[in-house]
Write a structure and sequence with these properties.
Strand content: 5-15%
CATH superfamily of the largest domain: Nicotinate-nucleotide-dimethylbenzimidazole phosphoribosyltransferase (CobT), large domain
Number of helices: 13
Order of helices and strands: HHHEHHEEHEHHHHEHEHH
Strand order of the largest sheet: 3-2-1-4-5-6
CATH topology of the largest domain: Rossmann fold
Structural class: alpha/beta
Largest sheet: 6 strands, parallel
């Protein structure tokens, strides 16, 4: 647990001094007060994280963690688990949704095998091989993984963020794992102390009549494993996923570097909840990229007190929502760097006030 504790010890709150400096500076720019609304809120956030009025955010990277789930044995997903490994090939070939949207928005994509239930060694250095085990166990019949495996998943996520720290200004989280909305719903239910029915949606397209079965399976798993909501590693090990642990670790790693991390959708939200329970201060560095179409995502936003930047009805995962939000960070930083002040533009401030 050394790396986890060391990383948590390095995470500090964002600078309120730099947030104030950014807010004051924005009021000198040639526009009515806060006329660009939430884009200016984002600019203030970036200034506080990076401790500068001119945050550099050009180098972007999506960390896409992949793993399989034993809970798919319970028929909770419309797709077979083999699709996870097949999609790794799609990522490597550059033709998946995240490749298209990430590439369009200037992001590098790193695929990390945390626990895909297949031998992926033939991909060589095209992916990062960090496999802990070949998929989690079926948490409807027992713990998804051991406590040490849960810890390992988080520390791998931390190491991954640190590995790319010198070449990345903005991180985004992504996921791939058939069946992973089930552990995400379970994690949310445990931390929110609510019924599973409030957290479960159609996932990758589950038919409406099968959602009740999915709810029952998750309820059975929680009742059987009795995860301790006061211990996020216990929750992760009993009802979580290896890629969810990787996402949690990546968020902690990014926060320790004082770098923003765009949290994708529902699965990434589960990782964000785990990270927040391990280190509440890391929430300062999270930016919720979008509002997922999964109904439980609204509760994740509420628990973490984060308002998503976009609402496009996405439910693909992979980091696609994070990729789509990246241009907003470019715009926020550009306002601070490139917009004229009233003084520099020789504009009388009262003429543009509202």
């Amino acid at each position: 647990m050394g790396l986890l504790l060391e990383t948590i010890g390095k995470i500090v709150p964002v600078s309120e001094d730099w947030r104030r400096k950014a807010s004051d500076y924005i009021l000198t720019l040639t526009m009515p007060p806060w006329a660009l609304g939430r884009l200016l809120d984002l600019a203030v956030d970036l200034a506080g994280m990076r401790e500068t009025l001119y945050p550099e955010i050009s180098r972007k990277r999506i960390l896409l963690f992949a793993g399989d789930h034993g809970i798919t044995e319970e028929n909770v997903s419309p797709s077979p688990k083999e699709v996870t490994a097949q999609m790794i090939g799609n990522f490597v070939s550059g033709h998946a949704g995240i490749n298209v949207l990430g590439g369009r928005n200037g992001a590098e994509i790193s695929v990390i095998d945390m626990g895909v239930d297949a031998d992926l060694s033939h991909y060589g250095d095209q992916i990062l091989h960090r496999k802990i085990r070949y998929g989690t166990a079926n948490f409807a019949k027992g713990p998804a993984m051991s406590y040490n495996e849960a810890l390992a998943s988080i520390e791998i996520g931390i190491r991954t963020a640190l590995e790319f720290g010198d070449t990345t200004d903005v991180f985004g989280t992504g996921d791939m794992g058939i069946g992973n909305t089930s552990p995400s719903s379970a994690i949310l239910s445990v931390f929110r102390h609510c019924s599973v029915a409030e957290t479960v949606g159609m996932g990758a397209g589950l038919a409406t009549e099968r959602i009740a079965h999915k709810i029952a399976v998750i309820e059975r798993g929680i009742a059987l494993n009795q995860p301790d909501y006061n211990d996020p590693l216990d929750v992760l090990s009993k009802v979580g996923g290896l890629e969810i642990g990787g996402i949690a670790g990546a968020i902690l790693g990014a926060a320790s570097l004082r770098k923003p991390v765009l949290v994708d959708g529902f699965i990434s939200g589960a990782g964000a909840l785990i990270a927040s329970k391990l280190c509440p201060v890391c929430v300062d560095y999270m930016i919720f990229a979008h509002r997922s179409a999964e109904p439980g995502h609204v509760w994740m936003s509420e628990l973490l007190q984060k308002e998503p930047l976009l609402d496009l009805g996405f439910r693909l995962g992979e980091g696609t929502g994070a990729a789509m939000a990246m241009p907003l960070l470019d715009a926020a930083a550009a306002v601070l760097k490139d917009m004229a002040t009233f003084q520099s533009a020789a504009v009388t401030q009262s003429e543009v006030q509202i």
